[in-house]
Specification:
Strands 4, 13, 14, 15, 16, 17, 18 and 19 form an eight-stranded mixed beta sheet that branches. Strands 5-6-7-8-9-10-11-12 form an eight-stranded parallel β-barrel, surrounded by four helices. Helix content is 26%, strand content 24%. The chain starts with 14 loop residues before the first strand and ends with a strand. Helix 8 runs parallel beside helix 9. It is elongated, with a radius of gyration of 22 Å. It is an alpha/beta fold and 402 residues long. The protein is built from eleven helices and 19 strands. The structure holds pyridoxal-5'-phosphate.
Length: 402
């Protein structure tokens, strides 16, 4: 195959080069930019529905399953109403504002799973007033204080199996592990949690855990061990109907990653829960939204300083924080397929912070020039939703293609 025809690791049907020009969601990216200015996020609604559909297909092997899309990954209202209309799934929320937002986008209480931490009394009252919302309590204090506002409610308990998982074993992406974390109730306090629930006439129908983000196939043996560790909790709950495995399913971030094999993933789940009469719930954010979005920026500065060729763009870590905070690889992509003439450059944003470096020493076409657009892929999850207005550079448009 000629280099022209070779597909890059991130190319797929709805994202890639056609005749040398970058297309996203069936449209040349140049045309997308023509509709708005940069910085701009574009989301492919079809890809989001496909990602959910792939999960449904895989999970169909189980006795019963439910998917709750974690809207903390991307809460853009048109995207949520699209998921409501086409996704055949519920949503996972983690704050009163996310709950009200989910309602306003059409989700009913029974389609919403709520898992938060450090909850206020007002928040608990809101949950007491909405008994259909599936609430997972992550601390003794939550269960105790919820009892002030209601009784006879169904609740879930978020547990902490003291093991964590994350993209390439990245410790900062783990929610539980050797270090004691705030997330969920540990073994030592579980009996107390069940007693508090019983004292308030709560029925515990769900065991919930979310132990980290971004895992791929190489982490499945660890995922298996984590599921193993959760049986201790499950076995003690009489009225258990649901086991919620949280989110955490990852997507490839660079050429060394392979997509998570959902059949392998479901086999691990099946080995633990088949035949137990439980509905298995999952609440992925990244897996559904991340690869369905791109961030388009514009190059405004091309300049050599000492021995480094800098490429400055009109957006920084305030628009997509994960590569900077978690060190997740991110891929800059040019609108015209790269030529053989490449040079290593350092791509920097427009925020006055030393960590505002998108890429160090990254090969880019040596003809890159001021005024050229530059696209960052995998910008559909945890980019706009975590955005800040630092340096008052938070103006960006969000656009959903359906
Ligand atoms: C409780 C809970 N569920 C689901 C998610 C979604 O995780 P991910 O986007 O990695 O699938 C998170 C992420 O922080 C979470 O805290």
């Amino acid at each position: 195959m000629s280099p022209e025809k070779q597909r890059l690791w991130w190319e797929r049907q709805d994202l890639g080069y056609q005749d040398g020009h970058l297309f996203f969601s069936g449209t040349p990216v140049t045309d997308l930019i023509g509709l708005t200015s940069t910085p701009a996020f574009f989301y492919n609604g079809k890809r989001i529905v496909e990602n959910i559909g792939r999960l449904h297909d895989a999970l169909a092997q189980l006795d019963g399953h439910k998917i709750f899309y974690a809207i903390k990954a991307n809460r853009f209202a048109p995207l949520l109403t699209h998921v409501k209309a086409r996704g055949n799934c519920g949503v996972d929320v983690c704050s009163p504002n996310e709950l009200l937002h989910a309602f306003s986008c059409g989700f009913k209480g029974s389609e919403i799973s709520y898992t938060a931490n450090s909850m206020t009394d007002r928040e608990l009252k809101l949950l007491a007033d909405n008994p259909d919302v599936l609430l997972n309590c992550d601390s003794l204090s939550t269960i105790r204080r919820l009892g002030r506002f209601c009784s006879r409610r169904n609740i879930g308990i978020r547990v902490n199996p003291a093991m964590g998982i994350g993209y390439r074993d990245n410790e900062t992406l783990k929610y539980s592990g050797d270090k004691t974390t705030k997330f969920g109730i540990y073994k030592e306090q579980f009996a107390q949690a069940l007693k508090l629930a019983a004292d308030n006439n709560f029925t515990v129908d769900t065991i919930h855990f979310h132990t980290g983000c971004g895992y791929l196939n190489t982490q499945l043996p660890l995922f298996n061990q984590i599921l193993d560790a959760t049986h201790w909790f499950l076995d003690q709950v009489e009225d258990l109907a649901f086991v919620n495995l949280g989110g955490g399913l990852g997507v490839p971030h660079d050429a060394d990653d392979h997509a998570l094999n959902l059949d392998d993933w479901v086999s691990v789940i099946n080995a633990h829960f088949k035949g137990r009469g439980l509905t298995v719930c999952v609440e992925p954010g990244d897996y559904i939204a991340k690869d369905a979005g791109i961030l388009v920026l514009s190059v405004n500065t091309v300049e050599k300083k000492r021995h480094t060729d800098f490429v400055g763009v009109n957006g920084g870590f305030n628009l997509a924080i994960e590569p900077f905070f978690y060190g997740l690889p991110c891929e800059p992509v040019v609108l015209k397929k790269k030529t053989d003439h490449m040079k290593p450059v350092t791509i920097v944003g427009n925020i006055n912070e030393s960590l505002d470096v998108w890429k160090d020493n990254f090969p880019m076409p040596d003809q890159i020039k001021e005024g050229d657009p530059l696209v960052f892929i995998n910008a559909g999850g945890y980019a706009s939703s975590m955005m800040s207005n630092h340096c008052m550079r938070g103006q960006v448009s969000e656009n959903l293609m359906i």
